[in-house]
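Review box. Two proteins, two foldings.
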Amino acid sequence: MKKMFAVFKREYLQAVRKKMFIIMTFLMPVLMIALFVLPSLIAARGLGTKHVVVLDGTGQLKDAFAGPEKKDAPDTSLGKRGDLPQQMQTDYVDAGGKNVEQAAKPYLDQLGEKNGYDGVFVVPADALTSESAKLKYYSRSATDFMTRERLSSRTNRAVQQHRFAARGINAADVQKLMKDLDVDAVQLSKGGEQKKAGMANFLVGFIFIALLFIPSFIYGLEIMRGIIQEKTDRVVEVLVSSMSAKQLLVGKILGVAAVGLTQIGVWLTMIGLIATAGLSAFALAGENVLQILRPSVFIYFVIFFILGYLTYVCVYAIGGAVCNSEKEAQQLIMPITMTMMVPWFLMFPIITNPDSSLAVGFSLAPVYGPLTMFARTLVAEPPLWHIAVSILVSIGTVFAFFWVTAKIFRVGILSYGKRPTLPELWRWLKVA
């Protein structure tokens, strides 16, 4: 035990004393927030302004394009409808009584030219009377669906108003009748308590899941690199001469786990302080983040972080033990890592439907349980027996992985030269 603790202490102190560890501990939350926020801001600015000409074959839709565009975009803010992500300038051309396709040709020639048009939108002459009429949008880009949908929505609303007016219904009444209703998302707990749901809950959920998931792989790589370095420097031969391979392995894994928990503890504290400071802002936006930042979330986070970390890190320890270089180990670990990341790739359907058979199956499965079950506890209230089974399965998986890792580690750390094949690894398991 003393020898194992010595390895644990060495691994822990060696990591936390590094300047990079201290810097990244306080900088990582900022980088993660930037990762979520900056792409949206950059995308919004990068979209720029679209200059579109509208040729109206009916000659009656000028009011739809003369004024400012109505904000009919989906709700992307924290509870309120925000500004549209792309500005659009429309030039209206009355083509009533003309061949609208012929009238559009001069404008089509200007598509894509400097100071020209980005798109040409054509409304056929029979748009108000025919159910089979087709709107046309010409653009140089095959993926300019955002502008197309906005023009289509704007035109169809105007066409509907004219059709109602033609049947004697007042235009003001039409606007009232066609006004969209906002939807308040409400989460109903098993005890009957109603909680307001929203985009903030979704974003906070993803941030917590990333905090659970990413450090496990980062520190797994650290263990793999450390083992390979010690093999290369022949330090491992000195270490195993004074302790067992199992003591060395457990000391390393627990030492790096403590490093991860230290970093996570700092991050959770920072998140708590930021959330406390931002409660008033979230409240003004109609969001109650306290319903997702409840005490049970932090308890489950610690439990599933430890289980997930110990599950993933054993795989990296095996990679370091059986390989002789970091490049060789990465080639071995990459397909295994991609397989373990399956719940992350499926996180959107898991979060949006936490009680589906997909989410339940992954949360009760070995390896995938810690990440998926934590996601379910974050956004819903899964049955307690689901949580208990997931924890027990994860504990069993950790013990099985430790047993396999210890056997392979015992032989692998003193093996040099060619990387072992799967049959050779099987023989190591039997003889170790």
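Next protein.
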Amino acid sequence: MEKKVIAIIIILSLLITLFTGCLEDEGVKNRKPKIEITLPDDGDMVTKIVQISGIASDPDGDNSLKKIEVMVEDDKWEEAEGTDLWIYEWTTYQLEEGYYTIKARAWDGADYSDIDEIRVNVFNPEISASGEHKWAVFIFAGNFPLENESKLGNGGLYLAEEMATHFIEHYKYPTSNIVILFDDGWIRSDNGFGKRVKTLTQRYHKYDISYASATKEKVISTIQNVIEQSNTYEDSEVFIWLAGHGFGNSENTITGDKLFESSSVYLWDEELIEDKELGVLLSNMKSKKTCIIVDSCFSGGFADKTIYNFPTLFLLKSGIPQSGRVVITGASKYRSGYSSTEEGPLFSFLWFDGIMQEKADGFRDGMFNRGRPSRLNIFKDGKSSVEEAFYYARYVLRSNEVIKDYRDSQPQINDQYPGKGIVRSSSPLILGQ
């Protein structure tokens, strides 16, 4: 009897040990994460900058996703932006046309997910149709960093889309030659102050234009591609709009600490693009019909201007203004600019209003380029040039009582179209012609 009791106790002990062990093993066993590519669809035709995005999840429910990685063909794995909602931007400008395999995987710190993959068809036409040698790039980064309360909202994106639509419908810009770079490639709720909602390409668009993030790498590669394409044609027209947070000291109301400093604009990855850097980037662009607008605080250096139309010091010149270009900034080098979270940068909004509604027709420079309307019809031709729109915006800034608190921004212009000196005044730059 005693032996039976001992045997039963031993058997029960073994069972309890095994059972407990099974529970412990089951409790600590890690389950692989899951991932799905949701954009683009398998078999889609893609071009230019491709936004690859998807969702991932952790079956264990402990939010342990560490990273998402994407691979194109048999190249190396690259880390995507985000985890449960993620995005990766793939630039196809220099690739041969044809089918490419895109793979994605998630990692939770212990295991990789199974790989999800799709096949897409890259199509990059090398030239535009005859008579359509026009390119436009709209760049806006305004909703970073996360803890910064001075977010600029989604207004810059909406303004860029309005300008792009106008350029397509009225200036015959081909949709294939228009790119909008915004934040990190996502639209956020609460007008830019909330969480990610969807990628820019997942939203409804009236026209098939290209979208991507406003990171430094994307800004440089996009502008380089525009230069390469536009240099092919003698009649090319280029429009570049760059807006966001400028770099300076608003507490210094005299010079903004910019007396011996370059003007610069923050991009999404918090990298600065300086005026001289943009000048070097644009140095080999041959287009003789170019408009460049930089709308940010302390941005006058991009136009080689300080304030009241005075030039910057010789050693601080950006090199952006050249023959055939009109360079405009939304503020002087020494002053802050202003932006609406709903309608975008104030100066750009007024400039576009003047050119879109033809309100700027006949506006002249005036003293210190402050802008003044013309009472003589000989200065009106029914069209608004980029210069007239500048003078119109400056005039509204200093005369409209509703926005009188913002009139000290002192927008600047460096007009060298069609050439330098007296020649420039003989022909204003009218987009689309």
